[in-house]
Design a protein that fits this description.
By secondary structure, the chain is α+β, with helices and mostly antiparallel strands. The chain folds into 2 domains: 30 residues, no CATH class; 119 residues, 2-Layer Sandwich (Mago nashi protein), CATH 3.30.1560. The protein has a 6-stranded antiparallel beta sheet with strand order 4-3-2-1-5-6. Strand 3 and strand 4 form a beta hairpin. It is globular and about 40 Å long. It starts with a helix and ends in a 5-residue tail after the last helix.
């Protein structure tokens, strides 16, 4: 399943780059160099099913790929998780676990562009306005996402229905890019 997600992300990035090439504004642009993603600990096992949807919005090549500060709080599960992921506008991320352990890194430019596109996706604001209901399941994961003043979330309880798509896309992106395994 991993090659399909790689193909989807590559296709989305190529579309964004080609869209930027056909813009009316022909002013020269420079792209700042960004260091690769780094972590303070060893590799983590990615969550299953963490591929991004193929229709994930991305920032165009001419636009600055800057997302607002994004915060994801993860709680619940059988083990009683209590993790937080914070991504700053410059792509720097910090994962803090419930014991206070921290890992840091930086989003790859492609992932930063995807996050910037998802942050302005109108579905995210719409999903934040949905009424919240208590879950009927126990020992499920709870995801609470804050992006640009929009606070939304979901649980992994099948009886609660399908998770909101834009919210889920951001959650999966953050879990994948930070190497956070939550299941």
């Amino acid at each position: 399943m991993r090659p399909a997600s790689t193909i989807a992300v590559t296709a989305a990035l190529l579309t964004a780059l080609l869209t930027g090439c056909t813009s009316v504004d022909r002013a020269p642009t420079t792209t700042p160099t960004q260091p690769s993603a780094t972590t303070a600990s060893g590799p983590a096992t990615p969550a299953t099913g963490t591929s991004l949807p193929t229709a994930a919005p991305t920032a165009s090549a001419g636009a600055s790929a800057v997302a607002p500060r994004v915060t994801l709080r993860i709680s619940g599960g059988f083990a009683g998780r209590g993790d937080a992921i914070v991504v700053e506008p410059d792509g720097q991320w910090t994962v803090t676990d419930r014991a206070g352990g921290r890992r840091i890194g930086r989003l790859e430019p492609a992932d930063q562009g995807i996050l910037a596109g998802l942050a302005v996706d109108p579905r995210l604001a719409s999903e934040a306005r949905r009424p919240t209901t208590a879950t009927t399941c126990s020992d499920v994961m709870h995801y609470r996402l804050t992006v640009a003043g929009n606070d939304t979330g979901y649980t992994t309880c099948p009886e609660d229905g399908t998770p909101p798509p834009a919210t889920q896309a951001v959650v999966k992106l953050l879990l994948r890019t930070t190497g956070t395994y939550v299941r």
